Amino acid sequence: MNKIEPQPDTFEDSSLKKETSQYHKITVEKNVKKVPPDGGWGWMVVFGSFFGMILAPFPGIVFSILFSPLLMSHSVSSTKISWIFNFYSLVWSVATIFIGPLCNEFGWRKIAIFGGIINSLSVLLSAFAPNPEFLMFSFSILGGIGAAIGYISVLVVSQYFDKHRGLALGITSIGGCISNFLGPILANYMLEHYGYMGASLIFGAILLNQCVGGALYQPIEWHLKYKEVEIKTEDDANEKLLTNCKMTDNLNGVQEKSLSETRRASVISVNSTFEISNSLVNISISPTLLEADEDEEPEAKNNHSALLSILKSTYSSLKSLKYMRVQLISWGFCGLLLGYVNFRMFVPFVLINAGYSLETAAWCSSIGSIGNVVGRIIMTLLSDRKFFNVRYGFMFGLFLIGTSVIGNIYIYIYIYIYIYIYI
């Protein structure tokens, strides 16, 4: 019997090559996703945030002017003044950690209105302060919480904008500059005409308008737009799964292969169709891509209480502190509070003790905000540009603040030496 030699397995290569070329193609699938409105009601949110940024930091900005009659009449030491103001900064910083989880639980609008009420109460109660120690409660605790809630304006604007986010945030931040300029001058005017109690009551009433700005923070889900995007996927031999592969010998000794190929499922492929009929657009979207619209007041998940949900979300946010970049930004802001904010707070007291009027001290506090406005406008124009590195801009700003404080210290030393020698 003649031995049949097995034939070369050329069938395998040619067959697989044909299959590879058959499935090597590019498919374009249309998907639909929700995107921020980037305009529309978003500009009303910018207006409300701009208004909130003017009013939210008011108590801290006018502290040195508005409360100077109470503090000076009781001959309060600079140490106690520093304790009152820095406790305000501490409460503000700690309360900021809980703002995001609170907004997720109860909605932006309710938290913003609540912050406006707390901010107003901090100044209204301070009008009846029997002694400076009472300010530790009325100003430091209530004012710190109100100021922390007021800064959700930046977070709300970020939710409504994508392409024009830098411009929207720049407009919002300019509200803080206006507050820095108007606050001391307005506080001095109120003190001259209405006294300490009258000025505090008027300021408290003005701060209630922060609730009006907060009322404009409608849920973002009401204004999301549906955007059609195209996702290109390339199918080739690497995207195939070869299954049920078996080999048999026929009578001629030629090996046959049975290949069953199944295409790998694409987890990002979601088809969408648009049907336009009588000006109506029907969108068919896979529920795995888009989440259901959230209510303004979302319920606590997994049947947990609201408090437990807030604490868990806060703890999750604090985990970001393990990253070096977050730590550096936090330490930079800490240095800003310790070095610049405290320095600016003490300037009016130093001028008053040097014999200058309260009006002069107020103007000195306000003029510094002009440069702040210029800097924020420049940053607004640059932040949306691809060539601009926001990180370097932040570092350069901190460098300018540090050099300005050091420069002022040397100027004061030079003035005192000049007075001591020549006068």
Automatic annotation (TrEMBL):
Coiled-coil region list: none
Subcellular location: Membrane
Source organism superkingdom: Eukaryota
Keyword annotations from UniProtKB, A to Z: Membrane, Transmembrane, Transmembrane helix
Entry annotated with the keyword Transmembrane helix: yes
Membrane topology: Multi-pass membrane protein
A GO CC annotation given for this chain: membrane
Alphabetical list of PROSITE patterns matching this protein: MFS
Every Major facilitator superfamily (MFS) profile domain range: 45-423
Family annotation (Pfam families): MFS_1
Gene Ontology molecular function: monocarboxylic acid transmembrane transporter activity
Transmembrane region(s): 43-71, 83-104, 111-129, 135-157, 169-190, 196-217, 328-354, 360-382, 394-421
Keyword Membrane applies: yes
Major location category of this protein: membrane
Name recorded for this polypeptide: Monocarboxylate transporter 9
Organism ancestry: Eukaryota, Metazoa, Ecdysozoa, Arthropoda, Crustacea
